[in-house]
Specification:
Layout lengths: L1 H16 L3 E9 L18 E3 L4 E3 L5 E6 L5 E5 L4 E2 L3 E3 L6 E5 L5 E7 L9 H14 L3 E5 L11 H15 L6 E4 L10 H4 L11 H7 L4 E5 L2 E5 L3 E4 L2 E4 L3 H11 L8 E4 L24 E4 L2 E4 L6 H8 L6 E4 L6 E3 L7 E4 L8 E4 L2 E4 L1 E8 L2 E9 L6
Parallel strand pairs: 1-8, 9-10, 10-11, 13-16, 16-19, 19-21
Antiparallel strand pairs: 1-4, 2-3, 2-5, 5-7, 6-8, 9-24, 12-13, 14-15, 17-18, 20-21, 22-23, 24-25
Length: about 400
């Protein structure tokens, strides 16, 4: 593990010093699944490859070339409909993406879960969730942040232990699990509690990237475009909802290659729109720090993504049926008047099983979505019904 960390930090350092790096390779149909391009295995054209900033598409032979200025450590492929495989690798001069052609994706189900808050006490709840996902038979699972118990307020050893527990739990799932960061994945930023220095090599979002890869990316499934959004920022010791300018540029670059007829689904941790904050007082000790922070000279609620309007500009007039999030541990959903987007928060995998949310009964659980021919057929909240606590 220490050797792996040293290599990761060295690559990150070298990338931050480099002015530009040339990356090339191929996206191909790995028909025998050996992760190597053997004779006769065809390239896959029109696939988007990114350094989380600049994007290019593979040519008719599946080849691509990318001039990378980004100091982020990964090259990422936006998996096309019909294919699966590893979607990111550490940046290098040559990177191939072997993808496997899968089953028909016109009709499928997926799970949106959130707030697993993994530690040793929550592992049984995660195991219960895994068994339920396996029994339902979903195509994939989305987990929208707060994956670990806490990295905000603890030292490196404790935070790293939580991340490793999460990785061990996720590896047991039979289907792909896609995640994005929540506020609890930000390592050490509450420095009065963590005693972590700002110059720590894994400070902030770097720990997430080290253990779990890119913090934002996209993939395609069943004719729909899924975008994992990193909607968590921080000012000094306070996290808040927001998307930085680099990610906004990546969104624009990612979507420019997407046919306008393909629906877009986003998932992130802190909601874009939510009734949840309306139950909370602005002066409260429920959350560490103030509820309102100055953003571009204006007071904004800390527990919403303050610049959602910038995300809307990137998505534009595309069909945007679902915006998924977590953070409040309560399943809530609704539309903005006149809009088509369903803003849906799911419950938490962490306990308790049942609790009172400002006078409303709430449950631990996840949401099951069914898609048919690129259209949302159903959305059902599924209680975890865990009996171990």
């Amino acid at each position: 593990m220490q050797k792996q960390l040293a290599i990761f930090l060295l690559l990150t350092c070298l990338q931050s010093l480099a002015q530009q790096q040339h990356v090339s390779g191929a996206v191909f149909n790995d028909t025998n699944g050996n992760l190597l391009r053997d004779p006769g295995e065809p390239g896959i054209p029109g696939v988007v490859i990114s350094d989380q900033d600049t994007t290019v598409v593979s040519d008719t032979q599946g080849n691509y070339q990318l001039e990378s200025d980004s100091d982020l450590p990964y090259i990422v492929v936006s998996q096309p409909t019909g294919y699966s495989g590893k979607y990111y690798y550490p940046k290098a001069a040559k990177i191939d993406f072997p993808l496997v052609n899968g089953a028909d994706q016109s009709h499928f189900k997926f799970i949106h879960a959130s707030d697993t808050h993994i530690d040793s006490l929550n592992l049984p709840r995660m195991e219960r969730f895994r068994k339920m996902a396996d029994s339902i038979g979903v195509a994939f699972v989305l987990i929208s942040g707060d994956l670990v118990r806490d990295a905000l307020r603890v030292d490196e050893q404790t935070a790293g232990k939580y991340y490793r527990l999460f990785l061990e739990a996720v590896r047991k799932f039979r289907m792909p699990v896609y995640s994005c960061p929540g506020n609890h994945e930000l390592f050490g930023i509450e420095r009065d509690k963590s005693l972590v220095r700002e110059d720590h090599p894994l400070y902030g979002k770097k720990m997430y990237r080290y253990f779990l890869g890119p913090d934002y990316y996209s993939f395609n499934y069943g004719g729909m475009h899924f975008m994992a959004i990193d909607g968590v920022e921080y000012q000094n010791q306070y996290y808040h909802g927001g998307v930085d300018s680099l990610q906004l540029r990546w969104m624009e670059n990612d979507l420019k290659f997407l046919p306008t007829a393909i629906p877009v689904i986003t998932f992130n941790h802190i909601p874009f729109v939510s009734p949840g904050f309306s139950f909370s007082e602005f002066e409260s000790d429920i959350f560490y720090g103030p509820q309102l922070l100055l953003q571009n000279g204006k007071l904004k609620h800390r527990h919403l993504v303050y610049n959602f309007d910038e995300i809307q500009k990137r998505i534009g007039e595309r069909h945007y049926p679902l915006a998924l999030s977590g953070h409040y541990h309560v399943a809530m959903e609704g539309y903005i008047a006149g809009g088509e987007t369903l803003f849906a928060q799911t419950g938490a995998i962490t306990g308790p099983d049942r609790f009172d949310y400002h006078g409303f009964p709430a449950r631990s659980g996840f949401t099951l979505y069914e898609i048919q021919d690129s259209k949302l057929v159903s959305a059902v909240f599924v209680p975890l019904k865990f009996q171990g606590n």
